[in-house]
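In response to the reviewer comment on reproducibility (Comment 2.3), we provide here a single inverse folding case reported in full, input and output, so that an independent group could reproduce the run without further information from us. The structure tokens appear first.
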């Protein structure tokens, strides 16, 4: 979707529901940059989005707010990893207060990673389960798409890792929990983990099962990106340390569409209202951007949790200010 497609239904939600909730600063800790020049032929699955594009989106989504980003690369089999990372670094260095987690696949060497993370603005790694060595993106352990050799480099530099967990149970999977416990408490104590999408809890269940264990592990953080269900967000707000929670949008293509990620019991599904051919005969309102659905869930969860402005500021920008050394 192009930013020009922002419409009056989105605007109503911003004006009446979100403008008094989103603070004057926003650090988006989960947003992607895309460049089809680095994709294999015939695989331009996402719209090209550089730093200027996500800045334009931010100005539209959060008007009047100062915004910086933790940017991530594109997950695509066959991508030119070296060219893509070089471009990502050049983009992120245009904003001294935005940061980058470098795209990493199991084929990336320690020397390649070390070279890139020594560049200004590069603070960590973004592995993807689609690159898993066992060929099974749905059921792979962390070490199958972020190798121990790479984790040793991350530990040496004290890097961040934005982790989209695999396995059906996500953060509640016993292997994932055991690995994270080992990595955080003994094997790689300097690595800092951002568990994306509320630790991949698009429904209430995984984080509800896992939070009592995760909150006792050091160096565990969460981004709230793309979660359109109030319940997992509320679980984190009520049961985790607030200084471990970060706002993220998962923009552009993953959440800047009209629809949401729908929870159905313990299942969930991406739903684009236009693609589904949905009709709305009983109301005049129309679907809004998924990222606004997420922000509404955050607002309602914050109200239930009894949060005031200090807590809301922490999630949207203050935590990131301290963690990523951001100057506003």
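Designed residues, in position order:
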């Amino acid at each position: 979707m192009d930013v020009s497609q922002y419409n009056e239904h989105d605007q109503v939600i911003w004006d009446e529901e979100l403008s008094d909730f989103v603070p004057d600063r926003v650090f988006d800790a989960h947003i992607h940059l895309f460049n089809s020049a680095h994709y294999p032929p015939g695989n331009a699955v996402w719209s090209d989005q550089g730093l200027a594009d996500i800045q334009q989106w931010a100005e539209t989504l959060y008007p009047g707010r100062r915004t910086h980003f933790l940017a991530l690369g594109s997950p695509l089999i066959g991508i030119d990893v070296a060219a893509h990372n070089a471009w990502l670094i050049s983009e992120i260095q245009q904003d001294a207060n935005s940061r980058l987690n470098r795209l990493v696949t199991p084929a990336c060497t320690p020397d390649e990673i070390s070279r890139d993370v020594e560049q200004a603005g590069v603070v960590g790694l973004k592995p993807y389960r689609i690159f898993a060595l066992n060929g099974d993106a749905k059921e792979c352990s962390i070490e199958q798409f972020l190798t121990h050799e790479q984790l040793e480099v991350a530990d040496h530099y004290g890097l961040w890792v934005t982790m989209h967990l695999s396995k059906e149970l996500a953060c509640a999977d016993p292997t994932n929990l055991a690995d994270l416990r080992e990595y955080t408490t003994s094997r790689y104590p300097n690595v800092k983990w951002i568990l994306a999408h509320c630790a991949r809890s698009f429904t209430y269940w995984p984080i509800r099962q896992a939070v009592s264990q995760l909150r006792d592990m050091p160096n565990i953080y969460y981004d709230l990106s793309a979660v359109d269900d109030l319940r997992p967000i509320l679980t984190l707000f009520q049961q985790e340390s607030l200084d471990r929670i970060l706002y993220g949008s998962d923009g552009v293509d993953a959440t800047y569409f009209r629809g949401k990620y729908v929870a159905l019991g313990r299942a969930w599904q991406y739903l684009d209202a236009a693609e589904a051919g949905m009709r709305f005969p009983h109301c005049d309102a129309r679907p809004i951007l998924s990222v606004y659905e997420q922000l509404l869930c955050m607002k309602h969860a914050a109200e239930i949790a009894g949060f005031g402005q200090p807590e809301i500021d922490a999630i949207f920008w203050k935590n990131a200010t301290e963690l990523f050394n951001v100057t506003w």
